[in-house]
């Protein structure tokens, strides 16, 4: 019995059908439970979940199909293009259901591709099995497959791009390099913040890589040409419509919020490192009454720390801000009163934020980034969504604790392994640098540069933190079985 189980779980990595079926089976369970739990969404007939960003991906495609104009167009069409394909022959709800099925199937494939990449990187068979099962069991990597958000596709596209890129380094086949460029282009069109990965990948083609690769100039061109062509078409389209040069996106924030109190409110909360979760009633943003997932609920606890106050504002000032927000949000408020309250909110919130920067520099420049980094690395999404009481009863809490601990162990091992790979990558093999640089860049750019503390922004780099954790793990396992090059 044990031998049969061992043969089932540790079959040769070359048996792709076996591993793909195993991945589909194990990932299918949490996916189906998510659908059973009926996650929040506002699309009748859609079985998956949607969040605040979802309409900005779908509405431009609906407008394109109905009126022939892609609008609003501040989002690049990386996510919408998949929805567009299904929308050509299906209703909105059916198209959305097909999108999440596609996300699930691609994510299942990527578990296998990531494991193959690990065995190619570390040259050890153990790397395949460790990577496959760590990725498969992780609830965090399964969380977004059923949601109409960019996290799932972005993570999968990045894994596929790295898979083909490492394959090309060994095979030197042009098709592998072009495919790596195509999928990295998709990553950038899904998340423009990942544009710097393009030169990062290209670094490993140039003569700086040891040993030097032949015909490296041609190889660099072949790698970047998918992005040049796609982004060139996007730039041309934007210039014809707006008479402006827009290479990626015209706005980081929602354009319709440009004159709203919401952006200054978010910036004010970020000034002390507060939680800006738009769908979390118990976040610092939720304390002010801004809660997009339905009607604002009564504040359950005071989520404002005591050390944030300055000469410009106190607790009573913030209670006044909350009342002004309630007035603005009230649909029965007179338009002139709403505009006046909105203007007052913008002025006060900007003033309050600036006072924190002036009077509490330690809070603003030291404590804030530490808090944002903490929320970015460990947020609500790390909890196992399928372990809620309505599915498992009392055992759900134990399962949730297990997966929370599992996430934390992987996170710590991944970060430690990331620095280990940076050290190892300074010598040979240099490719270690790529796997360490992807999560390092993700961790720096979101909470520390853009001040985005939501844990979901870590998702595209999560797979590579797992690879980094494997590097650390292999330090303790020993030499292990080396895999011949033709078996990788």
What does this molecule look like?
With 488 residues, this protein is an all-alpha fold. It folds into four domains: 15-149, no CATH class; 154-252, no CATH class; 255-368, no CATH class; 378-397 and 417-456, no CATH class. It contains 20 helices and no strands. The chain is globular, with a radius of gyration of 24 Å. The chain starts with a helix and ends in an 11-residue tail after the last helix.
Labels describing this entry:
488 residues, mainly alpha
Stretches where pLDDT is under 50 for at least 5 consecutive residues are 292-296, 383-390
Q: Based on DSSP secondary structure assignment, what is the total number of beta strands?
A: 0
Major sheet characteristics? none
Number of helices, counting only DSSP H or I runs of 4 residues or more: 20
Overall structural domain count: 4
Q: Note the gap between the termini.
A: 29 Å
Tell me the strand percentage band. Answer: under 5%
Radius of gyration: 24 Å
Question: Could you spell the SSE succession in H and E letters?
Answer: HHHHHHHHHHHHHHHHHHHH
Mean pLDDT figure: 86
Helix percentage:
55-70%
The geometry reads as globular
Structural class: mainly alpha
Concise description?
By secondary structure, the protein is mostly helical. 64% of the residues lie in helices and 0% in strands. It is built from 20 helices and no strands.
């Amino acid at each position: 019995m044990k031998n049969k189980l061992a043969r089932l779980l540790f079959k040769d990595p070359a048996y792709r059908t076996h591993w793909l079926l195993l991945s589909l089976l194990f990932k299918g369970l949490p996916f189906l439970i998510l659908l059973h739990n009926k996650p929040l969404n506002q699309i009748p007939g859609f079985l998956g979940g949607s969040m605040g960003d979802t309409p900005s991906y779908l509405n431009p495609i609906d407008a394109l199909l109905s009126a022939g104009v892609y609008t609003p167009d501040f989002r690049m069409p990386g996510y919408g293009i998949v929805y567009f394909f299904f929308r050509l022959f299906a209703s909105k709800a059916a198209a959305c259901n097909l999108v999440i099925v596609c996300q699930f199937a691609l994510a299942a494939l990527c578990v296998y591709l990531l494991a193959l990449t690990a065995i190619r990187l570390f040259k050890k068979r153990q790397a395949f099995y460790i990577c496959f099962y760590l990725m498969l069991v992780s609830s965090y990597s399964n969380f977004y497959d059923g949601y109409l958000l960019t996290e799932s596709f972005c993570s999968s596209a990045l894994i596929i791009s790295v898979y083909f890129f490492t394959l090309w380094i060994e095979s030197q086949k042009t098709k592998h390099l072009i495919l790596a460029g195509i999928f990295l282009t998709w990553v950038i069109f899904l998340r423009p913040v990942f544009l710097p990965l393009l030169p990062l990948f290209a670094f490993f083609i140039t003569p700086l890589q040891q040993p030097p690769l032949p015909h490296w100039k041609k190889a660099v061109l072949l790698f970047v040409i998918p992005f040049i062509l796609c982004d060139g078409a996007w730039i041309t389209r934007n210039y014809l419509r707006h008479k402006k040069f827009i290479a990626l996106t015209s706005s980081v924030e929602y354009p319709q919020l440009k004159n709203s109190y919401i952006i200054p409110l978010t910036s004010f909360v970020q000034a002390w490192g507060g939680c800006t979760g738009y769908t979390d009633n118990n976040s610092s943003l939720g304390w002010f009454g801004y809660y997009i997932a339905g009607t604002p609920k009564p504040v359950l606890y005071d989520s404002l720390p005591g050390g944030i106050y300055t000469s410009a504002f106190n607790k009573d000032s913030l209670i006044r801000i909350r009342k002004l927000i309630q007035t603005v949000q009230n649909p029965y408020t007179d338009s002139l009163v709403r505009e006046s309250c909105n203007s007052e909110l913008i002025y006060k919130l900007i003033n309050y934020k600036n006072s924190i920067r002036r009077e509490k520099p330690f809070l603003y420049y030291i404590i804030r980034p530490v808090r944002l980094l903490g929320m970015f690395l460990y947020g609500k999404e790390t909890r196992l969504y399928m372990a809620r009481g309505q599915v498992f009863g009392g055992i759900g809490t134990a399962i949730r604790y297990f997966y929370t601990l599992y996430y934390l162990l992987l996170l710590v091992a991944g970060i430690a392994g990331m620095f280990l790979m940076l050290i190892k990558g300074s010598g040979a093999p240099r490719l270690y640098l790529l796997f360490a640089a992807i999560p390092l860049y993700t961790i720096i750019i979101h909470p520390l540069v853009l001040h985005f503390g939501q844990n979901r922004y870590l998702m595209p780099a999560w797979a590579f933190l797992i690879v980094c954790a494997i590097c650390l793990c292999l330090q303790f396992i020993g030499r292990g079985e080396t895999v011949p090059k033709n078996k990788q």
